[in-house]
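pasting for ref
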Amino acid sequence: MWGRITISSIIVVSSSPAFAADGRDSLMRVFDYNPSIAGERSRAKAAAIELDIAKADRRFDFRIDATAERQDISTAARHLSTTTATVSATVSLPIWSGGRVSARIAAAGARADVARAELVEATNRVLTDAMIAHIDVARDRTLLRLQQEQTHILAQTVMAAELRAQAQEVTDTDVQQAKTRLAISQARVSQAEASLISSSQQYWAITGAEPDGDEQIDDRLPPLPQPSDIGNLLASMPSMMAERHRVQASLADLQFARATVRPTVNLFARYDRQFGGTTLPDYLGRNTMSVGITMRLPLYQGGRPGAEVRARRALLEQSRERQVAIERTILSVIRARYAQLMAADETMRESKIAIDASEQALKFAAEQHLYGERTLLDVLNASQELLRAQTRLVDSRRDRVAIAYEILALFGQLVPLVEQLRHRTHVAANNESGRRAALLKLDANGLWQAQGLEHWQLYSKKT
């Protein structure tokens, strides 16, 4: 009796369904707000403002200066006190700066582009982390369920073995082997619970919400670029765009360093009005207006410009070499991810075959054990092999989806995908609200009334 119950319970474990939904809600929740993305967005905004600050150097400058001065002059003959107040208004317009302003604007614009590219890269990375956290929770919950069911089955097996040992159908060795497998399974349940807690906390850290217990995943993958298109898509990847703009910023910094030895020319107009003095015309005020051109020509600066040029040239070479290194790294990672994706596909297919074969092997071993042709250890081994096959299937499904989203993040195509999902969600929500609004009707008092409700007051014509 106990043997048959154990066999049927084991078969139930093998037919338990894996996840069947998706994690789009997690992606859209993170896309709407995440502290890491919000921080990168603020940094990109600050970089754009730095560009506005750099552009201000080419515009005219207008200022008003006011000074007040009192002088007390004492001699042996007399004491003289004078009070003077001067108000000046000056307008200055840079005519030529030797290329400094243009280089500073180019550098600020390139750094703003770097910040925008890094924002896209960070957003893709956080979205990928959110999806991986989602499927990690689903994987760990599924593995915990499988291990708990396996523990329950082993507990029933121990009970059945003890009863059969009392009837002298099996030996004490079989009982001890069943108890050993039960103890190991109980320890693995504790490990699975710890893994689920860890993945749940990681999910909370990224999304800001606790897992709702229904995290599942769909085996359907998002559309991925073809491996043959990697070369064409390389320039549009966020990381490569950021490196390219860094090289442009370094080149602009080099141009700015070279421009520090060139003269600058400014056009100015100044108006002064002075009040005070010791005579009546002075107290009535004196007006002075001047218009002119100022030129500043640096002759010797202690070798600073030359050193800055050499330093900026070295940093430019570093940026170019870093661009080459990042390109190689991205290509190697993408090729490795595609290889891992194909391996995950193959592992998932083989795991399904292994599960089917393990189910049949477990069924035959259990039936043969009832007739004394197999030992209890053979049944336990077959059950453990089935659990390992199920675990490999869950892991391969998790890896398959995680690798697909990592590939999308590397190409920078995860953000447009989430935007499309959110747009579709909003359209569906609007269509649903429109459908519900069409079901509403007005009653005699001019109030909105829904089907099934006598008075659902949302809007009144009287108000």
